[in-house]
Amino acid sequence: MHITCNRESIQKYVAHAERVTGKNLSLPILNSVLLIAAHKTLIIRATNLEVGVEFQIPANITKEGSVALSGSLLANTLASITDEQEVTISADKGICTIITKTKKLTIKGFLHDDFPTIPVIKDGEGFIMSSNKFTQGAKSVLMSAALSDVKPEISSVYLHQIADQVVFTATDSFRLAEKKIKQTGTTISHGVIIPVKNIIEIVRVLESTTEDINFLVTKNQISCTGKSLYITSRVVQGVYPDYEQILPKSHTTEVVLLKQDLLNTLKLSTLFSDKFHKVVVSVNPDKKICIISTKNTEVGETESNLTATLSGDPIEISLNGKHIFDCLGAIEKDSVTMEFNGSDKPAVIRGLGDNSFTYLTMPLTR
Amino acid sequence: MIENTQLWENTLRELENELSRANFSTWFKNTAIIKQEDGTVIVGVPNEFVKDWLQNKFHKMILKSLRNLSDHIRSIEYVVHKIEDKGTEKKEVEKPRSAMSAELPLADLYVNREDGLNPRYTFDTFIIGAFNELAYAASQAILKKVGTNVYNPLFIYGNTGLGKTHLIQAIGNEIKKNHPGKKVFYITSEKFSVDYINSVGQGAKTMSVFKEKYRKYDLFIMDDIQFLSNKEKTQEELFHIFNELYHNNKQIIFSSDRHPNYIPALEDRLKSRFSSGMIVDVQEPEYESRLAILHAKAQVNKFFPPEEVIDYLASSVRGNIRELEGLLNGIICQSQLKNRHLTLNEIKPFIKNTAKPKKLLSVKEIVKVICDFYNIEEDHVYEKTRRKEVLKPRQIAMFILREDFNISYPTIGQKLGGRDHTTVMHSCEKVKIDMQSDLSLIQEIDQIRAMF
In this protein, which residues make up the domain named DNA polymerase III beta sliding clamp C-terminal (chain A) (predicted)? Predict the structure, then answer.
């Protein structure tokens, strides 16, 4: 193998590929990134058997071939070559040589007969969506997915279709986030559950581009195909709770306030809240009072009066301040609405007049 | 044919010798033979990556090993299949946060969107007692021979909260488990009619999609069929689906809160079809079953109230299992709050609070229901006639007014055409005595009671 290619692009894609190499797996070859030179393109491939990625970059190929190299070593090596436009990579009998104008490095490669193939989905349902719309949808809900692996279906993001919208949902059973992204031409008859760790990788790769991506889903796998990239991930085989049934359809109290006000108040509150991030929201529409207070016996207390439009019944509810804080980043509007249905029912947070994002959080009991 | 697990274990043992340790454990972990048919072995693998690799890399090797063990095998197919990882059984970790924050009520919503079944409903959690023995036996017969048994269709009826939904969903889940290839579908009649109405509104194409959709199942379960009353076109559609499924020997299961003959405004042709298989009822659980249910629930919640409390609940709360559960949950909640077990005296007012208020019906309304049931003119009951067809309903009306609605003998006599209170007493006694020997009378009274 002997190729010459642009340094920046190989550096960028090897860095992405390195992230999905398997760590601490029983099959050592999974730690490596596979480089294949064929038909004027360099293919960079990596997988940890959860996610598989493949990138294609144009390259000047004088001799076709392939080599597998330690992912972290290659990524770090390329990252430290900063002064060159192009790099030349050649490999012979498992020894890889990287040559720039000023440097010459040799890296020991691995036998790559055992390097896994990456499943390609041929027929499946799906949609075509620009990568930034997809990453926006996924990032709006990511933080709500459960982190533990006890219930794989909720440490995941659920992707399904309602009318012509792709819906992203995540919940850790204490809060739930749902983001709808309009995309005509979507057909997903059965939703898919993507492990949150995998969708984070997908998002990270898709963030580096703005092109339209072709998403295909089957019962077992999801794949994202762009002009020069291909990512595929396993999906969780299981049942996602029919969460739509718990989204409240009405409310007894409504609070509309500026997002920035709420954000500032919560920032202050977190300094004083206890380890459960408890904040108490007291609303009295008749007296036009909206107070967020916190109390920590070891630190002190806060009480913030917020300017807000209020309607409905008076309420006092204890919420997890961190949960509220988390969702504000996903709200694009300047104003947010908080809806309550009593102090033991979940609170709903949305952007004002924006139904694409819905966030539910359970009150704290004590 | 060698047993699937045995065959695969032997194959793996052979492959283990030929492959490196790393390769073997990475690629063959959590694989299994799912089934064999006509020389084709279907191997279940955990994900697409493994499927791809086995197919491309190890296929020849696996086939060779399999053929060494069983020479009729000609080919292998790989499918992605969820296999429970037995080695690392995950224990539910203690959740410190749950004490602080209630969970979103998602646990009940794990409904499989493809077949509508809730995996929570299984026979493992189903309690069998005298009250549901027959329904359970019928369901077991169905499990043995899906579709081609005498219990097709199976119609289960009984009051609300007696475990009908649990039973029929458990049948669905069990069949899904035992016959992965069978298509199971559960729907409530309400969802069905909504689906029908939606497809009517959207033209011929969606209509045909609708028609096709319901005809492809091997097991079709429809819950709460009584809500179809007065929905003529939905009934008609169900009739066609029923015929199609029935002729193809597909199993059909219905549930309702009353006998099909007493569902108002249900077309006769549907009624007669429901009756063509097996109709079983689920009764109210008797004391022993209630006790068993409470014990099982306590087990599930890992909360064990004193025996006298459970005993008191079982003996004083009649009927509905759901209410029984609700009461137990309430007691659990109270005990956790107070951090000790409740005494019997604390529980008594609790039960009083949640006891269902008796429905208030006028004597006239009750008599009307009974007259409709026996198909006689209401006026005759109040008249001084001793014709046999009037006498029986009148006596039953007196009996029910006394037993179920606690109305005094003189009042009953006065309301039913100015009769003497001794006449009423005699009637009630007579019905009671007759009920001991006359089975059809018991059934009739049960059915009448179900209508209040």
Answer: 245-364
Nearest partner of A235 among A268, A274, A191, judged by Cα: A191
The helix-helix angle for B439-450 and B363-374 (nearest 10°) equals: 130
Indicate whether A315 and A342 sit together in one domain. Answer: yes
B132 close to B167: Cβ distance less than 8 angstroms:
yes
Residues A150, A92 share a domain = no
Contact B104 A150 (CB under 8 A): no
Q: Measure Cα distances from B66 to B21, B62, B73, B118, B262 in Å.
A: 20, 6, 7, 38, 59
pTM for this predicted structure:
0.70
DSSP letter at B257 equals S
Q: Where are the domains of chain B?
A: 4-80, 123-281, 287-354, 363-450
Nearest to A349 by CA among A330, A242, A365: A330
Q: Does A365 touch chain B (CB under 8 A)?
A: yes
Residue matched to tokens 């695969």: B8
Say which CATH number the domain at A204 has.
3.10.150.10
Q: How far apart are CA A331 and CA A277, in angstroms?
A: 21
- Residue span of the structural domain in which A41 resides: 2-108
**Residue A25 with chain B: CB contacts under 8 Å:** 26
CB count in 10 Å sphere of residue A295: 15
Q: Which residue of B has its CA nearest to A317?
A: B101
C-beta of residue A318 within 8 angstroms of C-beta of residue A332: no
In a domain, A119, yes or no: no
Q: Decide which of 1.10.1750.10, 3.50.50.60, 1.10.260.40, 3.20.20.80 is the CATH code for B363-450.
A: 1.10.1750.10
**Number of domains comprising chain A:** 3
Interface check for A221 against chain B (CB to CB < 8 A): the answer is yes
Q: Are residues A98 and A152 in the same domain?
A: no
Task: Write the secondary structure of B308-368 as one string of H (helix), E (strand) and C (coil).
Answer: HHHHHHHHHCCCCHHHHHHHHHHHHHHHHHHCCCCCHHHHHHHHHHHCCCCCCCCHHHHHH
Please indicate if the annotation marks B164 as binding a ligand: yes
Domain B123-281 fold: Rossmann fold (3.40.50)
Which among B53, B100, B105 has CB closest to A276?
Answer: B100
Q: In this structure, are residues B18 and B47 in contact, taking their beta carbons and an 8 Å threshold?
A: no
What are the structure tokens assigned to A70, written together?
């330690």
Last residue of a domain, one of A67, A83, A108: A108
Cβ atoms of B390 and B437 within 8 Å: the answer is no
Please report residues of A whose CB lies closer than 8 A to that of B114: 190
CATH entry 3.40.50.740 includes domain B4-80:
no
- Fold classified for B287-354: Helicase, Ruva Protein; domain 3 (1.10.8)
Residue A113 lies in a domain: no
